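Dear colleagues,

As part of the handover before I leave the project, I'm documenting each prediction I ran so the next person doesn't have to rerun anything. This entry is a single chain, and its sequence is reproduced below.
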Amino acid sequence: SKIDKELTKKRNLFIRKIALSIEKKMCQLALKEKEAFIFKFLSHIPLLNMHLHRIKKIALDKSVILLRMMGVPNPEGVVYRYPHELSGGMQQRVVIAMALACHPKLLIADEPTSNLDVTIQAQILDLIKELKKTMKASVLFISHDLGVIAEVCRWVAVMYAGCICELATVEELFENPLHPYTRALLRSIPRPGIKNLESIEGNVPNLVNPPSGCRFHPRCPKAKEKCTRVKPKIEKVGKDHFVACHFYGD
């Protein structure tokens, strides 16, 4: 009947809309748990039953592709395995693949290359850089590895005890560091011909009860009385350079 045809049309439209929104989650969950377990919940949605095989195939195909991009050996088998069956490095690559599955506009990468060997690190960094181009995505890259930051980032925000000390383009920051903490960090990087690296004296502050004024002042060699009282505001000191320090020019 005409009513049945209209209902069928609306049902199919509903299914397509749901499938498009669920598809991304499927990719993530299929990587997270065993495929047979994850897709079981779809059986509780009658309208999706007829499309279950299609959604499963889309999710699994994408999962395998992403895992292969991550350099995971035998991705067709790994997609059916539980997290505890994978090594730490393998788990980390799977987590990155999960993030990429959503085609994000902003990718927050918190130490994405830690615990990975040099070869895999390079692959992941290349992938992140390629993602920025192909998906037009922005990347917030969180790392303590200044070498990696120099390779991946365009802008760098140096933070100490939860506060931004300095913000600049990567070239400007490495060539002209102004904040005492930034300078100390750069002096601690291993360099050819330097046997003894400099360390930052003192201890990291308690963030529950942080120091007054500039949070770096207890460890800063240039600290003055004002630093103990007044928190410095971040100010523009160049075209692409901002710093939060009362005496950065001294």
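The longest strand covers residues 163-169. Confidence is low (pLDDT under 50) at residues 13-51.

All the best with the project,
I.
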